[in-house]
Structures are given as C-alpha cells and as structure tokens.
Design a protein that fits this description.
Largest sheet: 6 strands, antiparallel
Radius of gyration: 15 Å
Oligomer: single chain
CATH architecture: Sandwich
Number of helices: 1
Bound molecules: manganese (II) ion
Number of strands: 9
CATH topology: Jelly Rolls
Distance between the termini: 42 Å
Strand content: 35-45%
CATH superfamily: Jelly Rolls
Order of helices and strands: EEEEEEEEEH
Number of domains: 1
Structural class: mainly beta
Length: 147
Amino acid sequence: MSRSVRRGEGFRWEDVPLEPYKETGNDFREVSRQLLFGHGEGLASDLRYFEVGPGGHTTLERHEHAHAVVVLRGRGRVLVDPEIREIRPFDLVHVPSLTWHQFRTTGDEPLGFLCVADGGRDRPRRPTPIELEELRRRPGVAGFVRI
Ligand code: MN
C-alpha cells in the first residue's frame, strides 16, 4: 500500500501529529518530533523530523544505532564526538554507533532536520559523571554541552 502526504503549513505534514521529542526527561529543551515514516511500513528505519527552537538543544546521548541526518531549516551546531560542527540547510550529518552527540540551535530560527534511525533501535544512554568529565576535556566541548 502506498502513502503520500502533503506538506502542510511551514515544516508540518498533513495528518502527521506533532509529538514531544521524548516522553520524559529534562535534559533537552524546545524540541518537537514528527514521525514521517515508521518502520511498520515495510521499512527497516523510522524517518523523523525534529525541530529545535531558538535556545534549544537535544539530549546529550549515545546508543548502538546510528543516525543519518539531513538539515532542512535554520542554523545550528552539532557535537559528534569529538567534533563540533556548524550546520545549515542541506548539510548531512552521520552519527556513528556509540558516539556522543547533541544538536543546538543558533539564532532565532528553529533548527529543523530529518533523521533516519533503525526501527529496532536501542535506547539512548546519557553520560555517567566519569564519561561527562572525559567528554568535557575535548576542545570546545565543555562550553558546548548542555545536560
Ligand atoms: Mn540520538
């Protein structure tokens, strides 16, 4: 069965609910999530669209599964351990397995990106105090990460 979805207003798609980024937690800020394609549709992965509002950030985390990210709007910076990179629309970011990562918005426009992730993925893990200490020793990282 095929499915096609029209774009709605702005960075929304018709009949795709706007969901919270995560059900619980206070380790992120101003993040919304839309599930565009789910792995139940004969796909191995989920395709999600995330938006991080001005001043916002995603969780500092890592996990076994990888991410493939395509930036669609706004400006931001992303930590993919050990590097922090500037990102803008159409930039691509690969987050390898077990790599610490966090996205932050720069400026007044939300940072919006598509993100592919395995349907049977493991749960994200946050750094332990020792892992955080180690991560903060990398150049620029102490001033970047938000927990
Ligand atoms: Mn992640």
